[in-house]
Amino acid sequence: MTHDDDLEEGPGREPGAEAPTPDAVSSAMAGFRLPEGFAQSLLPSMDVAVSKMLAPIREQMKAMFPDTSAYARDILGPLSRRFQEQMKSALPDYDALVTKTLEPYSELVQSQVASIAASLPTFTAPMIDFPALKGAGGSPAIEPILKQIANQQFAMLDGLRGSLKPLFDQQMLRGFNRALLPPNLRSHAGEVQAYQVHEFLEQEGIPLYLVPRDRTALRLLRAQDRSGRRRVLGDCYESITDDCATVLEQANRDVVGEELKFALDGLGAMRAGHSRSAQAMFTVTLDTLIYRFYPDQATRRLITNRKKDADVPGAIDEMSVHEAMVWLPIWNAHEQFWNHKGDRVPNYYSRHASVHGVSSRQFSKRNCVQVLMLVTSLIGYADRLMSSAGRAKA
Q1: pLDDT digits (tens, 9 = 90+) for 29-71
Q2: Which end of the chain is more exposed for a tag (fewer CB within 10 A), N or C?
């Protein structure tokens, strides 16, 4: 938990130093936020093509089936709430009929399909002559009518199933999943799903956005528990350090600012064998970066106040997919720690234990490389956002 003395002044400012102006803060925040409409623009050409193909059936299906929002929620459940709302608004709602129809594709649907289903393809089904049922009772006349209904329903299901087939093409689904994955994992879109990355980050303070390299990220995802993931950090210490160095050294210093220089200083100390000094440097640099994103104390505490067994806060749950991938591990790394209450110093990286419980359990090579990854992922994310904003203006 963030302590009161952590919040009285912004990280990185000396007492009495000039506070950032509202314009400067607004400018920084504008550069650091994800652009509106990000989710819809992931695969724009596909969305346009699918919308044209599927448009004719939208009104027809609304009239034929009852409304339900559960279908969209089931598909998008592992991803962020904001993404769910964006995609759910584009999905027509169906109930048992669509569920039954999609059973052969359930695994693919559950993990991948979202914006590609703006609506469903066109198929035809004859209308049932319900008035003819009146007064039929138990007479023999009802048998052919019931048979007609059954045949028409089978034809309807076959038509819907056949129309849906093009939507579940493996290549198209893999392309959508690839767009949701962090850049360092996109070459493995056929073996790892975006929701798996998101679930990992909900539980762990180890980032997977931009760093580490794909092979290491896959090892982390496949590790059975925290001990296994910490072994990966130890085994891959040198390569993870190199991965972070690549991202930091390529970042635009004019875009990211002073924090980049201190991160590089920490990297130098780390390579010289001073991992404890480097861990301290990365920790205060992370504090400063968080303050730049969230100068408002109340908002910042949503990120830096991670109670044990707490659900993901709304501030993160409402973020876009990649934005949430950056902030989830930072939130997890701020798990509460109260030294004065006798909390045991954890052996995994903890921002609060690093600041308020200095010990050999907390300061280690594994924890040093973990906080380096957190700083690198956030700096790389900011660099990409602000560079993209600059290109858009140009």
Answers
A1: 333 333 344 333 443 344 444 444 445 545 544 444 444 444 4
A2: C
Tokens of 171: 């290549």
Cβ burial, residue 339 (10 Å; 0-12/13-18/19+): middle
Quote the tokens at residue 312: 């993901």
What is the rounded (10 degree) CA torsion for 14, 15, 21, 27?
Answer: 30
* Token representation of residue 112: 């991948």
State how far the Cα of 134 lies from the Cα of 230, in Å rounded to an integer.
Answer: 71
Please report where in the chains the tokens 């912004």 appear, as a residue.
10
d(CA 348, CA 366): 8
State pLDDT tens for residues 196-247. Answer: 999 999 999 999 999 999 999 999 999 999 999 999 999 999 999 999 999 9
For residue 131, the Cα-to-chain-centroid distance in whole angstroms is 51
- Biggest alpha carbon–alpha carbon distance for the chain: 94
- CA separation for the pair 1, 21 (Å, rounded): 28
- Could you please report the per-residue DSSP string of 32-93? HSPPTTTTTTSSHHHHHHHHHHHGGGHHHHHHHS---SHHHHHHHTTS-HHHHHHHHTTSPP
Q: Hey, what are 207's tokens?
A: 């980032």
